[in-house]
Model the fold of this input.
Amino acid sequence: MISTNFIFVGFALSLIGSLSYVKDTLKGKTQPNRVTWFMWALAPLIAFAAQINEGVGIQSLLTFAVGFGPLLILLASFANSRSVWQITHFDVICGVLSLLGLLGWLVTRHGDTAIFFAIMADGLAAVPTLRKSWIQPESESSLVFLFASINATITLLTIQHFTFTNSAFAIYILALCATLFVLIRFKLGPRFSKRKIA
Done:
């Protein structure tokens, strides 16, 4: 276990990653999927509120970071018309399913259940961006996902006694963001497609 002070380092890294994505979005280099980024802002902020309510403590800063950063990115997507990814019916379906996951929290209002539904909602919201990162990785920026992975790792290393409440969201974020980083950075989708054609 490492000192909980490292959580502030992880938070700073997540913020730097988010701001780099905001910069790429404002330049028109990155085209965020607004369905994904809206839900990525909403679901973690609900999970953060649930964690605070359950007394998680400083580890909840990761959850706040992965909600606040996407909120900045979503807002940036409205500043440049070249920074908009075309939303499809598939994206809308994922968004609706994601919202239904959040409704599960409103019905139960229980901390662990809220965190579970927030993870489910966040995961469903991630599907369009996972798909986009596979098909067209050049429309994404990998740094935000790398730093979010590091933030999640730091958070997990500060936990003394693992519970669903204090670790589930961090484990999920690590798995998701590491996957997105690898897909975007190494352009696995196009590489795999070329091999398949050859």
